[in-house]
Amino acid sequence: MKSAVKTFTGKVTPLVIGIGNGRQAGGGQQLCPNALINDGLLQLRIFTGDEILPALVSTLKSDEDNPNIIEGAFVVV
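Structure tokens predicted for Lipid kinase:
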């Protein structure tokens, strides 16, 4: 089993939790932009409740770091 986990400790209010083995969700939104279909890993991405809904859509389209998005934990299925 292989894994690469970015550790996060803290209390957050999740708005959206994405777990994916591919980059895009319905409508072509990049919910898990670092996920690859053929690497045997899942990407976990948590959008916190501090992120308002209109900003969520623009954030999904942006490659910039956002402090209200926790991402980078991968697990093997």
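The CA atoms of residues 22 and 35 lie 5 Å apart.
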